[in-house]
Backbone:
């Protein structure tokens, strides 16, 4: 299994799932009330739902560009800026779902490119605080890319649940339903 085989389908599955949660939240709220969810937070010192969505998108796109060994496009800075400003300008659910759609296009494009990066390839990952993590591509994928991505996706799920959106485990693992075998007959 390549790193692309691990990361890209995960991004596609979970971003699609995140988009479906947002659609479900919108459908469960009276007209005009769903947008207030975008400013909801788990705790006062945490980023709101709007930021969690944008950061999940940024993490997925960042992973793609790192695997492709390409410089980040300006759109990644836009996602970062939108995310950092999510408390003041959360935007709409439609905006969030559009960012997910844009990210899925980037990920799906990478999936057709047959990215081949050796897991031992050195990868320096600069953090905003000026520190740098020296990792292999495998360590980056396993220890940074996936955990960071899932952190934002799961936090979005938790915010939606805390705000009363009816989501359950089946909504979280909906991508697994095609693999389900019918129960054996008695």
Residues:
């Amino acid at each position: 299994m390549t790193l692309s085989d691990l990361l890209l389908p995960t991004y596609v599955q979970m971003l699609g799932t995140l988009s479906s949660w947002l659609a479900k939240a919108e459908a469960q709220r009276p007209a005009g009330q769903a947008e207030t969810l975008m400013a909801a937070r788990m705790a006062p010192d945490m980023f709101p739902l709007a930021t969690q969505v944008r950061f999940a998108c940024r993490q997925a796109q960042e992973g793609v560009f790192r695997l492709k060994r390409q410089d980040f496009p300006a759109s990644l800075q836009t996602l970062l800026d939108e995310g950092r400003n999510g408390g003041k300008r959360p935007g709409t659910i439609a905006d969030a779902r559009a960012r997910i759609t844009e990210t899925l296009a980037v990920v799906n494009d990478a999936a057709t490119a047959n990215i081949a990066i050796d897991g031992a390839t050195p990868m320096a990952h600069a953090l905003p605080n000026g520190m740098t993590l020296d990792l292999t591509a495998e360590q980056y994928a396993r220890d940074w890319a996936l955990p960071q991505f899932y952190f934002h996706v799961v936090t979005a799920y938790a915010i939606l649940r805390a705000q009363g959106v009816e989501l359950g485990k089946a909504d979280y693992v909906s991508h697994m339903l095609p693999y389900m075998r019918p129960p054996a007959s008695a």
Q: What stands out?
A: The beta strands are 122-126, 132-136.
